[in-house]
Every structure is written in structure tokens, then in C-alpha cells.
Design brief:
single chain, alpha+beta, Alpha-Beta Plaits, 45% helix, disordered N terminus
Length: 145
């Protein structure tokens, strides 16, 4: 009986891994947060991004929890945001597990909590104007010359 259960689990795992490999190439999920920094809080926001957001994503990338990340500074004065935080996930499985995985990364790297300048919490220095989640239809890679 134990052998049958083991064989069944082995077959299910193998099928799931095969399905994941087949679908992952076309399932890149991207999350973009459009952020407005509160006036006069630019130094605090930059400190937060460099000492938290960036550190956590570097570790998540190294651990293969995410596919890539990017922080864009926007110079368009007519926009209602000045920063775009972008995180790419290889597939829906990776994306679905991200909250748990980022919690693990955060506890591992900074068990005492977020590193903050002047004790300002993220919501006291920034506002997420909108957050967009999408699946890539076309996705190109840069070519090294």
C-alpha cells in the first residue's frame, strides 16, 4: 500500500513539474506599483528602497523566488507618480507563493524589521497610486554583444 501511495505522489509531482516547465515560458507575470513620494520625504523613500525593497528583491532573485526586478524614477512632472516598482515572476506558481516567500526573506535578512530613516513608515513617505498586474504577451531578452 505504501508503495502505491509513493508511486501516485511521484507521478503527480512529475506531471506538475512537466506542466510548470511547459507553461512558464509564456506566463511571465509582472507587477508594477506606481508610487508617489510625499513632498519633502524623498531621502526617506530612497533610504527605504535601497535598504529594504532592493535588498529583499536581490535575495528573492538569488533564491529564485522572482525572475527580475526594476525600480524606475519618473521625470514626468504631469504624472501622479514619481517611481515605478516592477517585479517579474516566472509563472503563476512563483507569483502565488510570493507573499509567504517575501515574509521568509524579510525575517531572514532583517529579523528586527524594516530599516527606516527617521522612523517614518512607508505609508508616511509614499503612496501607491495604482498597482497593475499583467501577463506578458511578448517578452524579449537583451542581447549581449
Amino acid at each position: 500500500m505504501h508503495i502505491l501511495v509513493f508511486f501516485f505522489l511521484l507521478c503527480c509531482t512529475s506531471a506538475a513539474l512537466t506542466q510548470s516547465k511547459q507553461s512558464s515560458a509564456s506566463e511571465v507575470i509582472t507587477v508594477m506599483d506606481f508610487v508617489r513620494t510625499h513632498k519633502g520625504k524623498e531621502a526617506e523613500a530612497r533610504y527605504f528602497y535601497e535598504n529594504n525593497w532592493l535588498v529583499f528583491r536581490k535575495e528573492a532573485l538569488k533564491s529564485r523566488f522572482i525572475a527580475r526586478y526594476q525600480l524606475l524614477s519618473v521625470k514626468d512632472s504631469s504624472a501622479d507618480y514619481d517611481t515605478i516598482l516592477i517585479t517579474h515572476y516566472s509563472d503563476s506558481t512563483q507569483f502565488a507563493a510570493i507573499e509567504k516567500r517575501f515574509t521568509e526573506v524579510m525575517k531572514q535578512i532583517q529579523p528586527q524589521g524594516l530599516k527606516l530613516l527617521n522612523s517614518l513608515k512607508p505609508r508616511e513617505m509614499t503612496t501607491i497610486v495604482r498597482s497593475i498586474e499583467g501577463k506578458s504577451v511578448y517578452f524579449g531578452a537583451t542581447q549581449n554583444k
